[in-house]
Design a protein that fits this description.
This protein starts with a helix and ends with a helix. The chain has helices spanning 2-9, 17-27, 33-50, 64-100, 106-149, 152-161, 163-186. The longest helix is centred in the last third of the chain and has 44 residues, at 106-149. It has 189 residues and is mainly alpha-helical. Helix content is 80%, strand content 0%.
Length: 189
């Protein structure tokens, strides 16, 4: 439990944490560029933490190069989830369009609604799987670049080998997302 609290508390050890974090948070408002820079800033912070440095990297727009590879990998995985869920959803839409042109069959409409629900379920499960796999994806991308991050077999193998750590990291990412969302609401963003 101590390590989990440290994960959320270590940035506060930097006496200038608020200003650095605020700058990066404001940069995140820039579409695409802000997110890529934020990923690079996160990787720079992880490098500092691994080196024993308890301070955050400066908050500025110089981390784009570091974040590009990870952004590409996350985009590919995200698109895979969208394509899988979207293809099932599109099948249901095609059925509904066809049924809307004439006498509708209640059974086919029910199948279309079922496909819509299945697509939502697939998208939700894919999103959750991606959240829990994100720490191994980040590590693989740092070590092997884009090809390393897209090596799904290695990601699954790493996730299974460190099962409890993968679950804890995934839950922490969900908690961090909730805290970030709350912060966005409180700041009226």
């Amino acid at each position: 439990m101590e390590r989990i609290a440290d994960a959320f508390g270590w940035p506060l050890r930097d006496p200038r944490w608020f200003g650095k974090t605020l700058v990066v948070a404001l940069l995140l408002l820039i579409p695409v560029v802000g997110v890529v820079n934020g990923l690079g800033w996160m990787l720079a912070a992880l490098d500092r933490l691994r080196a024993g440095d308890q301070t955050l990297p400066p908050g500025n727009l110089t981390y784009l190069g570091r974040g590009v590879r990870l952004a590409v990998v996350e985009l590919v995985y995200g698109l895979a989830v969208v394509v899988i869920g979207g293809s099932v959803y599109a099948s249901g839409v095609v059925i509904l369009i066809h049924e809307g042109t004439g006498t509708a069959s209640a059974a086919l409409v029910a199948v279309a609604v079922g496909l819509s629900l299945v697509s939502l379920s697939l998208a939700t499960l894919g999103s959750l799987a991606l959240t829990f796999a994100l720490p191994p994806i980040v590590l693989a991308t740092v070590r092997g670049g884009i090809p390393g991050g897209l090596d799904a077999r290695a990601i699954v193998k790493h996730s299974r080998a460190a099962g409890i750590n993968t679950v804890i990291a995934g839950l922490m990412l969900i908690a961090a997302g909730l805290v970030g969302s709350l912060g966005a609401v409180l700041c009226l963003v």
